[in-house]
Design goal:
globular; five-stranded mixed sheet; 11 helices; alpha/beta; about 30% helix; single chain
């Protein structure tokens, strides 16, 4: 019985091209009590692998967080399988605004301690005592209210390329970092202000809203479905779009354009640009913003030293990488002294 990937990303990419069939990029999450996470993980892998589902799925005792690519012709069967799982029946599915058949190239279903790394002790507060969910229409009304404080719950490299007008965008590397900073900044307004939060698909705000209510905030709201669902509703209902720029997404597309505004700049030359790339030097792999001109000059690298390494024969690059642990510190997103124009 197959429980893990047997094909490489390149092999899977070739199969997708040969199939020539449309795929849908979908995300969803659900907080729930899952007792045996490994059995549930295997159950999902077996069923979804048969349907040629690809993506990144995290399972923990607290629930599931999924980002997927599903063959369009199999969507009905996929949805029926979700509905057969009691706590996932009619779960809200965020369907990507911009589709890409190669958004994911492998099926990875992983058991984790948490579905989002928040660093919180969930036993100290009621995670089900959430804030008020609002749709796009109500959200637009709230953020025009002078008594509203609008907070972006995403990380610096996400909000840098796109965010709502007048939003507070904490300069943080992780979701956990933002929680204490926001609480401290708004300590004097826990009772008299409306705390309105948003994120990519809603999962970070789901936990944050319960946490802030536990911390004494009286009026807590969250954008239901996040930026993805907001954009869908804006288009479907012809509402005013108050989001500027791109929405960062965690797949091979890296972003979806929501408005024509370019609010970021190339980290190497400073010209307006909001295209995220990874440094071509596999030993670096730094995520940063690079324009087409700099990409050509730098051979898709973040620095001269990485450019030199990337020009070496592949086997020599492998030798240089040998024995070096590829930690999160190496793959720091958007933080490096070589990025002269990083805001």
């Amino acid at each position: 019985m197959q429980l893990y990937n047997t094909l490489s990303a390149k092999e899977r990419e070739q199969l997708i091209e040969e199939a020539g069939k449309e795929r849908l990029t979908i995300s969803f999450y659900k907080y729930a009590h899952i007792k045996n996470t490994q059995i549930f993980r295997n159950h999902l892998f077996i069923h979804w692998n048969e349907l040629d589902v690809l993506g990144r799925i995290y399972i923990a005792h607290e629930g599931i967080n999924a980002q997927l690519s599903v063959p369009a012709e199999s969507f009905g069967v996929f949805k029926a399988h979700l509905d057969s799982i009691s706590f996932l029946e009619n779960v809200r599915l965020n369907i990507a605004i911009e589709q890409d058949n190669k958004s994911f190239l492998k099926l990875k279903v992983k058991v984790r301690d948490k579905i989002v790394a928040d660093g919180l002790n969930d036993e100290t507060f009621d995670v089900t005592d959430k804030g008020i969910h609002v749709d796009a229409t109500r959200f637009n009304e709230l953020i025009e209210d002078p008594d509203t404080v609008l907070v972006d719950m995403r990380n610096h490299y996400e909000s840098e390329i796109g965010h709502f007008k007048n939003a507070i965008t904490p300069d943080v590397d992780t979701f956990r970092d933002s929680l204490d900073i926001i609480e401290a900044d708004l300590a004097d307004n826990k009772e008299d202000k409306k705390l309105v939060m948003y994120c990519t698909g809603g999962i970070r705000c789901e936990k944050a809203s319960a946490y802030y209510k536990h911390k004494g905030f009286k009026n807590v709201y969250q954008l239901e479905g996040g930026i993805i669902e907001y954009t869908r509703q804006v288009k479907a209902e012809q509402l005013e779009n108050k989001f500027m720029g791109k929405n960062f997404v965690f797949d091979h597309r890296r972003s979806e354009r929501i408005s024509n505004d370019v609010i970021a700049n190339c980290h190497q030359c400073g010209k307006p640009c909001d295209t995220h790339v990874n440094c071509a030097n596999e030993a670096c792999h730094l995520l940063f913003i690079q324009c087409a001109d700099c990409a050509e000059v730098m051979n898709d690298c973040c620095s001269d030293s990485c450019k030199e390494i990337n020009a070496l024969p592949f086997e020599e690059q492998k030798r240089l990488r040998k024995g070096k642990h590829a930690s999160n510190k190496i793959f720091k997103k958007g933080r490096s002294e070589v990025l002269k124009f990083k805001k």
